[in-house]
Amino acid sequence: MMNIRAASPTPGYPAPQGGEKLRAGVKTRMVSPARADLGFKWLTILLAGLIPLLMGAILVELVRHSYPALQRFGWGFLVSQSWNPVTQEFGAASSIYGTLVSTCIAMLLAVPLSLAIALFLVELSPPGTSRVVGGLIELLAAIPSIIYGMWGLFVFAPFMAEYVQPALGRTLGFLPLFQGPPMGIGMLTAGVILALMILPYMSAITRDVFRLVPPVMKESAYGLGATTWEVAYKVTIPYGIVGIMGAVFLGLARALGETMAVTFVIGNDHRIAASLFAPGNSIASTLANEFTEASDPLYLSALVALALVLFVITVVVQIFSQIMLRRLYRARGGGA
Amino acid sequence: MKLRPPTGRRLTNGAVSGLAAVSALLGLLGLAWILSGVLFRGLGALNWSFFTQLPAPPGMPGGGLANALAGTVLITLLATFLGVPVGLLAGVFLGEFGRQSRLADTVRFAGNVLMGVPSIIIGVFVYTIVVIPTGSFSGYAGALALALIMLPIVARTTEDMLSLIPDPLREAGLALGAPRWRVTLTVIFRAAKSGLITGVCLAVARVSGETAPLLFTALNSPYWPDSLGEPTPNLTVTIFNYAMSPYPDWQQTAWGASLIITLGVLALTLLARLSLRERQK
Prior knowledge:
Oligomer: heterodimer
Largest sheet of chain A: 2 strands, antiparallel
Shape of chain B: globular
Number of domains of chain B: 1
């Protein structure tokens, strides 16, 4: 305000010294909001653009640094079992196998559990209980991976070795899966801990999906005399199946890439064993254990190639998950 | 349609309901088991020297993780200063300018996928772009890795919180002649304040317990962090190294560090949730 008054020269008087400057000041002040706005907008566009750019940059860097190993071993890298830094032989088979098996165990346990928990939270428990129990289960997602690792190694693995694995060996020991000494650490323990870790993510999304079902549909089914289970099985689950698939894929991606908890309990052995009691390794655990030790360029390159394999797998699974969830929300008219 | 006799249906229903309740109980049991384990074993390791001294060699009495505590705080703070402003402004694009545009859609999609990329991959990425060119592990590299993890989280929660603010508020601000950036930063941000704080708290909570991205960026060190340009001590990597060591007193110290990390992360998470609940009232 002050500037404007001072800058408008009184009629009949010459403009005061410095008037040009003042007028220029006024001018920029009048133009600047639009220009500042444009600048602000472009700044936000630029920073938002960093996110997709980052995805691309990760891919480029991983490919660039894994190139020597991939060139040397070719597609055989994916199927070779040998992992020997001394003879410079590297194959990803045991790590990929361990990642897939531990994830499989986790999914087998966590998918039914998270569906059941979501059912409990939405259909069975009173709203107050549902909020408290749901909140506590979501708290499982807040606990850092390394804490799961500590607990898994020092508390849960001994428990598995003492009670669970001997019992499994006695009852299902005729299967090669459950043979061998109960050591506590190994594929099975890693899978169970992974299940606990992905449970909160999957049950939270499934719960939200169940809540999206229009009450009228459920009430109609109840009106026909259906029980709670029948409503869930024939109305709620079919209605939200896309969302449930999205939740499952999301949990899958988490389990595939989970590092610290698995590294603590999987046993870190580069051999493929039939038994789930045996120690193994996963892509992430191999990276965590060996990356800083890899002094040799080819060794390092092989590790980055492992990272590339993991990146590609998790991104593909994530994309599936996003497509599923998107389809659900779009169909229901919500935001992304 | 042929229905089974009602008793069978009722029995199935009862069984499924029971199973559902048991599943929820299992989840709670897991939480209680982990938290109580960390609490009981961790409390024994905490004492005055834990917070004030440098690590002692195995077998020596005393010693603490004061350097790792300081390092974790430094790295997390730097990551927050790097990641939060960028994430907030990216979120402003999504919530204010981009909205339904194609670019915003791409950013949203990439952000969701990025949130699911394993954090160890981010560690490898930062190793290749920072540690290899500079030739040394550093706290800066660790902070950058954590900031990259925070970026999509902050951006998406910011967008969600901005989308809760009704448009008339924006129009009112603009009608007063305020430029868009000013309306966003002083009016909309103020209205969405508690939500934005929630998002930032959650992002900080998420990264302050991260280990995998620090393993080959910040590495670890038994000394005080003189500068972030060298390997920087931090709690989570220390837990990993100590837990994997064969020395019982180091393992004990790892439990103490676990308790500190757990309490810190849970406190931030609860703070974030309370802040959000306040808003919803």
